[in-house]
């Protein structure tokens, strides 16, 4: 697909200075847009247009024509042409006493939104003055600069400190949100925020796919962080040792593996009677003081565990894997990385702890929470927004 931009003036965006005009032009050319400056549209056909310039006349074929030309008001105090009105110098009145104007129609040299807003305020005040029998004030436009979007991640602002790129887009979004709230109220502001950040199409926003998600995923974000922090803390405690974790006084202490670490040989905490002393099993309970949900191992589960972990050596191997899986699940949920897999592992871990008798009733909520997070929770402020589409494209699957 090719895009042609036809402009009758010598430059695009004449309201900007020459430096910004060049930047915009380079941006458009980099995107593959073909520019035709000082060129007029002479005729329109169903399958294209005819343009003319100093180089001559040329026909451009195309399937879609977007016409953005406008009309210019007559800024004069002489006799108006038939069918038109004269815009008076105070900008708010015309040659007809009961017709008033605002925006570009009365002040075409400032063709911008700010002109419309300021002239509308002036018009309101002048209507009050006219009602009181006073002369209307002369409108003085205050140029606060311009903000121009050059795509979802690029823009130009000339307001205060000139900005370019992503920061310019952020400023434009905030200003737009302010005006939406001012005009439409809180409801319109929420809709604008959701439409541009939470539920945009194709990630075309200043945050790309980082916040692009269905609305329900927004409410899963705090749950994802909380559950991730729980598994992260649980895994870290076992890596450095429960007692070492409790007595840690500085950040560096959390990077030192203590003598009571579950990773060290001899510190077997698997709660199965054929592997360790029954009296020591209380130290492995994850459920706090409420007691385990399952008091006695099911027959089928005990038989399975005796097959997988018949001796302390193999049990230590699986204990080490379990500790690192807990830690990895916590990191994955916090970062929103492979959240579906992390949530599935969270469900499997807590289910295993319940059946093995080391999880209390206060942890039963982790089961439904883990299932809920499998609904794409990592796509909201998570790395899945970036990683999952790449995996999907790599594996050539429609949905992941």
End-to-end separation? 30 Å
Note the total helix count.
Answer: 10
Number of domains: 3
Q: Roughly what is the average pLDDT, rounded to an integer?
A: 80
What is the secondary structure topology, with strand pairs?
Elements: E1 3-6, H1 18-30, E2 33-36, E3 40-45, E4 48-53, E5 56-61, H2 113-131, E6 147-149, E7 155-157, E8 163-164, H3 166-198, H4 215-240, H5 242-246, H6 299-308, H7 312-335, H8 339-356, H9 366-373, H10 384-395
Parallel strand pairs: 1-2
Antiparallel strand pairs: 3-4, 4-5, 6-7, 7-8
Model description:
Helix content is 42%, strand content 8%. The protein is elongated. It has helices at 18-30, 113-131, 166-198, 215-240, 242-246, 299-308, 312-335, 339-356, 366-373, 384-395, and strands at residues 3-6, 33-36, 40-45, 48-53, 56-61, 147-149, 155-157, 163-164. Helix 4 runs antiparallel to helix 7 and helix 4 packs across helix 9 (366-373). Strand 3 and strand 4 (48-53) form a beta hairpin. The chain has 3 domains: 3-61, FAD/NAD(P)-binding domain (3-Layer(bba) Sandwich), CATH 3.50.50.60; 147-198, no CATH class; 215-395, no CATH class. It is mainly alpha-helical and 400 residues long. A 3-stranded antiparallel β-sheet has the order 3-4-5, with no helix packed on it. The protein starts with a strand and ends in a 5-residue tail after the last helix. The relative contact order is 0.07. The chain is built from 10 helices and 8 strands. Residues 73-79 and 278-285 have low confidence and may be disordered.
């Amino acid at each position: 697909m090719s895009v042609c931009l036809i402009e009758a003036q010598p430059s695009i965006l004449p309201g900007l200075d020459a430096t910004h005009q060049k930047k915009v032009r380079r941006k458009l050319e980099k995107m593959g847009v073909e520019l035709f400056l000082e060129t007029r549209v002479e005729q329109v056909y169903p399958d294209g247009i005819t343009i003319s310039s100093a180089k001559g006349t040329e026909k451009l074929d195309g399937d879609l024509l977007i016409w953005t030309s406008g009309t210019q008001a007559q800024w004069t105090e002489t006799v108006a042409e038939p069918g038109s009105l004269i815009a008076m110098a105070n900008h708010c009145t015309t040659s007809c006493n009961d017709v008033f104007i605002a925006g570009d129609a009365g002040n075409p040299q400032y063709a911008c939104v700010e002109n419309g807003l300021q002239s509308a305020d002036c018009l309101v005040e002048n209507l009050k003055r006219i009602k009181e029998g006073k002369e209307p004030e002369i409108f003085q436009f205050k140029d606060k600069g311009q903000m121009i979007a050059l795509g979802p991640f690029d823009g130009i602002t000339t307001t205060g400190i000139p900005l370019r790129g992503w920061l310019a887009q952020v400023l434009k979004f905030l200003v737009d949100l302010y005006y939406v709230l001012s005009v439409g109220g809180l409801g319109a502001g929420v809709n604008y925020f959701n439409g541009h950040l939470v539920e945009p199409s194709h990630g075309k926003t200043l945050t790309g796919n980082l916040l692009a998600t269905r609305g329900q995923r927004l409410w899963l974000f705090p749950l994802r962080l909380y559950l991730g922090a729980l598994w992260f803390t649980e895994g870290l405690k076992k890596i450095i040792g429960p007692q070492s974790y409790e007595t840690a006084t500085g950040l560096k202490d959390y990077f030192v593996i203590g003598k009571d670490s579950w990773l060290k040989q001899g510190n077997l905490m698997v709660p199965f009677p054929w592997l360790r002393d029954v009296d020591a099993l209380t130290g492995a309970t994850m459920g706090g003081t409420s007691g385990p949900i399952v008091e006695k191992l099911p027959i089928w589960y005990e038989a399975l565990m005796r097959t997988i972990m018949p001796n302390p050596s193999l049990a230590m191997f699986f204990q080490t894997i379990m500790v690192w899986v807990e830690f990895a699940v916590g990191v994955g949920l916090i970062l929103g990385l492979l959240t579906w897999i992390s949530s599935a592992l969270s469900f499997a871990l807590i289910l295993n702890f319940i059946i093995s008798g080391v999880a209390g009733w206060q942890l039963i909520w982790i089961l439904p929470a883990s299932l809920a997070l499998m609904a794409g929770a990592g796509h909201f402020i998570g790395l899945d927004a970036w990683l999952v589409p790449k995996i999907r494209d790599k594996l050539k699957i429609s949905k992941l």
